[in-house]
Amino acid sequence: MNNYLFSQGGSGTEYTLLNFDWSEGLYLRHQRIVNFKTKNDKFVYIFNNPIDILMSFHRRGFLHIEDAVINLQGDVSFKPPMNLDQIADNGIDYFDFENHFDRFFNQKNKGLFIKFEALDKGWDEIENFTGLKRRTDFVWKEKVSHTDKYSKETIDKLNLMYSYWIEKYNKLDSIFYNN
Fold first, then answer.
1. CB atoms closer than 10 angstroms to residue 134
2. 43-54 burial code (b ≥16 CB/10 A, e <16)
3. pTM as predicted
4. What 3-state class would DSSP assign to 99?
5. pLDDT tens figures, 154-166
6. Phi and psi dihedrals of 171, rounded to 5?
7. Beta-bridge partner residues of 47
8. Any idea where the domains of the chain sit in the sequence?
9. Which residues of 103-120 are buried (b: 16+ CB within 10 A; e: fewer)?
10. Are residues 18 and 30 in contact, defined by beta-carbon separation less than 8 angstroms?
């Protein structure tokens, strides 16, 4: 059996990698098309509000790189814009975040789903589910959205563009299993 770690990016994957002593056989991927080695393989899926993901991508300089869309196997028929304002103006979800989530939610392999906001409460669940041991020197940092760095108009457009997924996201439990 293998343990896998997946995320939409910008969702606390690095925190999760830093908080555990990863053993061989645990894989980090952003892909939405999954090829598990066995039916007993398990995965942890960390997800986040799409606007927070975009802000994380923007802060880290990922939005202007086509590879970010390709990495998530999103909509590569459009060249991604250079900044968050352009994404909001275009109204196109290049990253197709909801579809990314749904592909994992509908997996036959057992998966543990954790919202970014619940990561600090989900460490025990990850440890119990995967059998991996946590590091003792890990320091948790609070989530910072940085919505104040963007205009109200941009945030409103992003909220409208992602309204269905955000509504679904807000209704999901913070920590749950797919089956």
1. 13
2. bbbbbbbbbbbb
3. 0.84
4. helix
5. 999 999 999 999 9
6. -85, -20
7. 115
8. 3-177
9. bbbebebebbbbbbebbe
10. no
